[in-house]
Amino acid sequence: MHRRSFLALTGATALCACATRLNTTPTEAADLGSPTTSEFIVDQMSQPGRLAFEKVVVADWHFPNTTRPPGGGDWATRELDAQIYFYAIRHPERGLYFIDAGMPANYERHMGPVLRNAVRDTYDFSLRVSTDVWVRENGAPRAAFITHLHYDHVLGVAALDRATPVYVGPNDGAHRNFFYRFINQPTREALEGRSVRTWRFASAPDGGLAALDVFGDGSLFALHVPGHTPGSTAYLVNSTQGPQLVTGDAVHSRESWTGELEEATGFEADLAQIFASRRALQALAARITGLTVHPGHQSLLAEISRE
User: Fold this and answer.
1) From CA 300, how far away is CA 260, in angstroms rounded?
2) Which stretch of DSSP H or E encloses residue 188?
3) Lowest pLDDT segment from 54-58, 125-129, 179-183, 263-267
4) pLDDT: is 263 or 284 the higher one?
5) What HEC string does 209-277 produce?
């Protein structure tokens, strides 16, 4: 039986009259990515991978039990042990890129008092490795491909050179939510003065996902998975360790991917759409042999979460 849950900061839909935009940074059309099909993706994922792939555990945090959303509702709550990640991919010709961006060492400086206190006290946040330190030891990326513009996925770009472009899904910054007035400052500051480039997805086929061949060689695909935010984007990597699927918060947790839990955070642009995107993502994943799935804030295998 499915369980239902809010992860944190629930009740946003009841407060939509006071909604704030996620981000207002100007964007331009992406200079990468050509439309492709699920058939081409499945074929390419059966070929030997070319990209080196590293999952970096940036931080641990814990979401406690919270009360039901204002006015009740169907969504119960639960505790969640979670992590923040970014993913380093190295193309043999093009070099190093990030999927999501981790957190800078000075992450608290970018937060207002409400978010800073929540991270310190409510979420028991503990930084493992900052983006700054990782870049200093391993090299800087040529670009960052962001799953969506929430601070825990994008704030690490503040540690990158200002010339580093950032790629995001369509209309992500236009999403409005009451709680963005408390949590959108880090996103705003991380993207200020940067080149933010929007993926140019075509219309999705019925029951499927709009997809882009990012480098034009079948090594990396961007998949439009709207719902959590309008521009939410998953990334499918044909790596030397086998196919890797980075879901972003289209799928937050281990239980969400396995079907034990129907989850939401209170930030969703469209709950029906997030479930539709998840079904389409799982249908594509089922066609790819040897796929490893990386949910937004947990690993599927318990031992991986102890890295």
Assistant:
1) 13
2) helix 185-191
3) 263-267
4) 284
5) CCEEECCCCCCEEEEECCCCCCCCEEEEEEECCEEEEEEECCCCCHHHHHCCEEEECCCCCCHHHHHHH
Residue range 2-58, pLDDT digits in tens: 444 444 444 434 444 467 888 888 999 999 999 999 999 999 999 999 999 999 999
Q: If you average pLDDT over every residue of the chain, what do you get?
A: 86
> What CATH number does domain 3-15+26-299 carry, 3.30.1060.10, 3.60.15.10, 2.170.130.30, 1.20.58.1190?
3.60.15.10
